[in-house]
Every structure is written in structure tokens, then in C-alpha cells.
Write the C-alpha cells for this entry.
Amino acid sequence: MTVVTTLRTDELRPVLVTGGAGFIGANFVLDWCAGQDVPVVTLDKLTYAGNLHNLAGLHGNERHSFVRGDIGDVDFVRTLLSRIKPRAIVNFAAESHVDRSILGPEDFITTNIVGTFRLLETAREYWTGLPQREKESFRFLHVSTDEVYGSLTPEADPFHEASPYSPNSPYSASKAASDHLVRAWHHTYGLPVIITNCSNNYGPYQFPEKLIPLMIHHALAGKPLPVYGDGQQIRDWLYVSDHCAAIRAVLREGQPGHTYAIGGDSEKSNIDVVRTICDALDQERPSAKGSYGQYITFVPDRPGHDRRYAINAGKIRQMLGWRPRESFESGLRKTVRWYLDNAAWTDSVVAGSYRDWLGRNYSAR
Ligand code: NAD
Ligand code: TYD
């Protein structure tokens, strides 16, 4: 177990954030520490997707502690919970990349299903031993995805909390399984769980194997921008800090046993997203070689590729008053600028094993 800063749980019981060194988790921890006094303990296995540099801004912050470990390691998590006595667990920890799940699903089963099961059991044991008042206020918030609902036709209404589960990829199937476990731990044992199902996120610190950072990185390097299939697949994009604000609202005011669908009300086709990135780069970092759009290349499609995702976020808007602050245009511009200003971050994460990944995912296309 690595403790980077000293645990200070004497004043306020902390929130335990699992997967907090990844893309959304790190944004959540950074935003949290900027906005409130409740301490945070980040637990992360530091897989290829986890990066302690994402949390470098918190170095020396007494309200933040980092612990390296696996959500599926029961003894380790049990010891941690009894030491830090969290008021809530926010579970971001997961294998999260659809393409990786297609080429190697086992890690997705291990972390997303078995890991979530073990975390639930360890959390239940801890929660059972809490005094009544703390038991009532404890929350287990499981961060999930809209991909559990499957694919929408062009005319279909967006997904909402009561949409049937119909996952299509090893990733979404493993997340769906984890959602079912979380729900059952509430129904059977009374564990005060909440599930959030969010649409595609983008923003700072996203690992550059996902669409938006990959396209920015490739464009700046003058490499092909690989658009799968016809590029007409649709995703509902949400700026990451808006997702983090939604999770804070759910943690504060969400009802145990409920799920909340979160989305940006911002449906875009992949080809439109890539063109918008190229336009933004043409303005922010014009190239002597001409428009970045020249690098767009259509490549063979992802197997089983979901055609359209979209979320109706009416429940969280009405019940909790949450709404996104960024439009797709403003959020994308911020994101492009962040990647331009933080080239060293991208350079450090694309070194080494990332190159092997590009070879594995794109050489056969
Ligand atoms: P990510 O891959 O960037 O981060 C995942 C983090 O979890 C990494 O830091 C990794 O080291 C850590 N981790 C993996 N296995 C672990 C384990 N066994 N124990 C402890 N830590 C472990 O993912 P992300 O994009 O930040 O997504 C976070 C969560 O949000 C995931 O559960 C994902 O399903 C969900 N989600 C993501 C999106 C999106 O667009 N990225 C949208 C909706 C929901
Ligand atoms: P991705 O960022 O992998 O997220 P998800 O699969 O969870 O939605 O991909 C977003 C969309 O972009 C998806 O429809 C697949 C597509 N895509 C490409 O066209 N080319 C690429 O190189 C990547 C990584 C994704």
C-alpha cells in the first residue's frame, strides 16, 4: 500500500474515490478538492489508464491521500475502510475502453464484474458495522455508462433510467453486470447504493486512445485520423467537469436505490466531432502543411459497433437541479486548448506500451 500524503481523518470522514487516477476520477478528485473541505482518499490500481501525474496538482494538499491498490483485493480494501472510515465510496474503477474489451475481454470481467462484487461485499461488511446515524448517511455511488442500454435507432427516444439493458460489447456487458450487482446489493442487503449512467465524456486528462484526444494527438503529429466505418455513429457528448458536478449532486441529494441518467443533450456523429476538432486546431494551431482535415481516413469498422447513444437527463435535471454548463462547442474548445497547453502530459502517457496498443488496434484495420 502506498500512501503519498498523510491520512487526516480525525476532523472529517473522507470520501473514498476508486479509480481516481483515471480520466473522470482525477477530474472528480481535483474538482472536489478545489471546492470543499471534506477530505478525499483516492484508491487506484494504476493500470495503463491510471496516472498519478493527473493528481500532481494535489501534492502537499492535506485533504487528499493516494493509496495504490485493487478494488478486488478484499483484505486490502477491508483494512483501508477500517482505517479511513469513509462516509461514501464513489466507484470509478473500471476497465473502460471498448476497443480493448474487444481485443482482450478478461480484464473487464476481472475488474468490472468480480472487482465490483468484491468491493460491494467489503463495503457491505464495513457499512453493517457502522453506528446507525452513519449507516443511514453512507453512500455507495457506482459510476456507470449509457452503453449498458445498447444501441438506438435514429428515430428512437433517448435512453432514460427505465430503458431496458441490452449491452453489446464486452465492456458494456461487464458494466451492465456490475450495475445489476450494485442494484441487487441494495435490494437484498439494503446497502445505500446509487448508480449513475452517463454518456460519453471528454476533457482534460483523457487517455489518448479515446476518440477526441486520439484525434487531437494524431492531427498534431500529422498522422491519419482513423474514423471507423462511415463515421455516422452518434454519441451524446458531455464535458467531464459537468459529469463531476452531476456526481456531486447525486452524492449530496440522490436517493439510495435510484439510478440517474446523465447526458449532455449534445448528439454528434463521429465524423462531425473529428471535423470540429480539425477546425478548432486550424484556428488554434494553424499548420503550414494545410488544414488538419486532410488527415481524416476512413478505416474498417469496430466489430459490433453501436450506432447511436443518447440520454434523456430529465430526472437529474428536475429532481436535483443539475444541468451541463458547457455546450459541446465551448467544451471542445477548452479541451483542444488543454491538450495544446499540456503536450508534455500526452507525450508521457503515449510513451512505451501505448505504441503497442496502436499497433494492435489499428494495424489490422
Ligand atoms: P479510465 O480508464 O480513464 O480510468 C479508470 C481508472 O480505474 C484508472 O485510473 C485505473 O488505473 C483504475 N482501475 C482499473 N482497474 C482497477 C482496479 N481493479 N482497482 C482499482 N483501480 C482500478 O476510465 P474513465 O474514462 O475515467 O471512466 C471512469 C468510470 O466512468 C468507469 O467506470 C467508466 O465505465 C465510467 N464512464 C466513463 C465514460 C467515458 O466517456 N469515459 C462515460 C460514462 C461512464
Ligand atoms: P471511444 O472514444 O472509444 O468511446 P466509446 O466507444 O465508449 O463510445 O469512441 C467514440 C466513438 O468514436 C465510437 O463510435 C468509436 C469511434 N472511434 C473512431 O471512429 N476512431 C477511433 O480511432 C476511435 C478510438 C473511436
User: Anything to note?
Assistant: The longest strand covers residues 139-145.
